[in-house]
Amino acid sequence: MIRTNLSTRPFYNERAVHLWLLVMAIAAASATIFNVSRVIYYSRSDTELATRARRDEDRAVRLRADAVQQRASVDPRQVEFASVEARRANDLIDRRTFSWTELFNRFETTLPAEVRITSVRPKLEPDRRIVLTITVLARNVDDISEFMENLEATGAFAGLLSRAERVNEEGLLETSLETLYVPRAVAGARP
Fold first, then answer.
1. Which of 42, 93, 140, 172 has the highest count of CB atoms within 10 angstroms of its CB?
2. Check: CATH 3.30.70.2830 for 99-181?
3. What is the pLDDT of residues 163-182, one digit of tens each?
């Protein structure tokens, strides 16, 4: 067996190693460039955000001082007076929007033949809801139940309850009904 190298110059795989080192150097350089650009971008962003935060904090301090000054200049008696006047105006508007004609038209379309209405008392609640107390006369409970169902079917009456029932001197059933009246409700199914 021949143990000598017959070539004048032995072959070493130098090109592959050089190519590999070049690829690694390019990857390291591009990673370094990317990291440097990100550091610069984030430091600028951080500086800009810090400046904006300082500006916002200064503005908040000015606005708080303005608010304190405005509160000091407001007279609580004037606010209370305006509040009372607004409540009065709202009450007048609510009274004006209550239509007896609309209410009685609803009663007319829902009232069974055997039921008579003897009294209607509206009451305006503090939360501006209208509560009606309706006293009716009927021959039996079924007629009153039919009237209550008809009222609820219109959509303008909610929470209809029978508060008191008694038989009067004429032998008729006298019932006191209480309901929440929503005058602007769109009429639903007609009885």
1. 172
2. yes
3. 888 988 888 899 999 999 88
